[in-house]
Amino acid sequence: MSVLVYTESDQGVFKKAAFEVASYAKAIATDLGTTVTAIAINANNTAALGTYGVDKVLQVNNDTLKTFNANAYAQVIKQAAEKENATVIVVSSSADSKYLAPLLSVGLNAGYASNVIAKPESTSPFKVKRTAFTNKAFEITEITSDVKIVGVSNNSFGLVETSSSASTEEFSPSIPDLKITVESVDKASDKVSIADAEIVVSGGRGLKGPENWGMVEDLAEVLGAATACSKPVSDLGWRPHSEHVGQTGKPVASNLYIAIGISGAIQHLAGINASKVKVVINTDPEAPFFKAADYGVVGDAFEVVPALIEKLKAFKAQQ
Amino acid sequence: MKILVCISHVPDTTSKINFTDSNSKFDTNGVQFVINPNDEFGLTRAMWLKEKQGASVTVVNVGGPETEPTLRKALAIGADDAIRVNTAALDSFTVAKQLANVVKTGGYDLIIAGRESIDYNGGMVPGMIAGLTEANFVNNCIGLEIEGTTAKATREIDGGKETVSTTLPLVIGGQKGLVEESDLRIPNMRGIMMARKKPLTVAEPIDATAQTNSVTFEKPAPKGAVTLVAPDNLDELVNLLHNEAKVI
């Protein structure tokens, strides 16, 4: 018996979410009185996982797996789970993990709970708390199968350091034929992605036009944040679709979400409500976003945002 | 080409979310049900394939008779026929198992389901159908072209997108981008009249054991009032974010 965690990497470097799911796996393993094994595919510096409670790393180095392939990755994780006799498998909520987890679930005949936001309420029966109804409710789900898969919502559990060390073992699973070929990837490598970001700065129609996005990007840069936008902004073509957040766009579960010139339509709020702290900047004090936000500034974004950038720069310089 | 579009019957976004039976069941009282938005993008994309390249479009739902108006709406939008698998949707796995059986029985080439439903947000059904039928699978799909038995699909990834090529049979986890919101079709009177005559088959379920069980629901604690900061006092906002919220 053990807890297996899939620790994702990008270009060989572990994502922050990898350390978060490792921390989560450690918490479950402690409750179950067992150890944590990580499965890492083409990742460097596997020893770093020890800091977050991983005891052993199964390291797969394989050129065929250089680009992500959901079926092949699911097969690799399945073989690792079988080798380690894992009863619980922990994955993140990245696009890739959400892509492979249902395939893994079928492969292992394992129940899967996605969008889990806390450590299991109990491990026997195995009950977890997850978000449902697009963040308008929480659901306590019991996983009844022998093997269980838990998908942890990003930024929900946080990083927990422990003083253990991880051993690394080469692992050479069999790789299935890749029936899906990646033709091209279009990814902004210099920017923080919305999924990985701890802070997201988002702009709405109140910004009047795409030419005014400079200050949104400047604010994001000061904060090390990702940029996002509301649906009308992407529909108008002011910003790329990939920045659209909300019910039909990307979900956001950041620590801090700053909404600039966004009124707060219910579909928008549904998609960003999982963020822990919300700040709204809007000229209209009646904008629905003020009811959803923790902090608000009633004022003109064109004055407030540049001033806020200066204040934050001064604050960062002091730190 | 035979296309199957999976339709989830979900509460409209603006619905009040409440629970009954000691918070163990979703309260459907007064709730307006709609086609799951992520499924509707896929349905519209399927209609385009039908109109431009020739295809049959079947819509399917797993659920009780109360979901039939949602299937009829999909027929009014233009699907050719509908199947309702007559069993309660216990969990994603049992739903996927019923749908996989429909896929195998009907020999569908292309299966489009939404990347997730807006009620349970599981995000599992498309992938599980693919796993159970051993079809190829592209999730978070924002672009799809089919030529013969080959497919080119664009999927959203964290921080960008990627284009892949693959072959049918194929399962798509669809979302906005397959078509745009402005492309969605509102059923007209003729469509609604025709939908009444289109076949809606009630299929009996196969045996399937759930792997997860919904125990209870809770609603988030009511949020406190917003703390307003004057636009000329932004030092205070920085201070609050640092010392109170501890997010910067």
Describe the structure.
The complex is a heterodimer of chains A (319) and B (248). Chain A is α/β, with parallel strands linked by helices and 319 residues long. Chain A has two domains: 2-170, Rossmann fold, CATH 3.40.50.620; 199-318, 3-Layer(aba) Sandwich (Rossmann fold), CATH 3.40.50. Chain A is built from eight helices and 18 strands. Chain A has helices at 16-32, 70-84, 95-108, 214-223, 231-235, 266-272, 289-292, 301-318; strands spanning 2-6, 9-10, 13-14, 36-41, 56-60, 86-91, 111-116, 122-123, 126-132, 137-143, 148-152, 167-170, 181-187, 199-203, 226-229, 256-260, 277-282, 295-298. In chain A, the strands form four sheets. In chain A, strands 7-11-6-1-4-5-12 form a seven-stranded parallel sheet, with helices on both faces. In chain A, helix 6 (266-272) links the parallel strand 16 and strand 17. Chain A starts with a strand and ends with a helix. With 248 residues, chain B is α/β, with parallel strands linked by helices. Chain B has a single domain, classed as Rossmann fold (3-Layer(aba) Sandwich), CATH 3.40.50. Chain B has six helices and 15 strands. Chain B has helices at residues 37-53, 68-77, 92-106, 125-133, 189-197, 234-244, and strands at residues 2-6, 9-11, 19-20, 25-26, 33-35, 56-62, 81-85, 110-114, 136-147, 150-157, 160-167, 170-174, 200-203, 212-218, 227-228. A nine-stranded mixed sheet of chain B has the order 11-10-9-12-8-1-6-7-13, sandwiched between helices. Chain B has a two-stranded antiparallel sheet with strand order 2-5. A two-stranded antiparallel sheet of chain B has the order 3-4. In chain B, helix 2 crosses helix 5 (189-197) and helix 3 crosses helix 4. Chain B starts with a strand and ends with a helix. Classes of the chains: A alpha/beta (319), B alpha/beta (248). At the A-B interface, helix 3, strand 7, strand 9, strand 10 and strand 13 of A face helix 1, helix 3, helix 4, strand 9 and strand 10 of B.
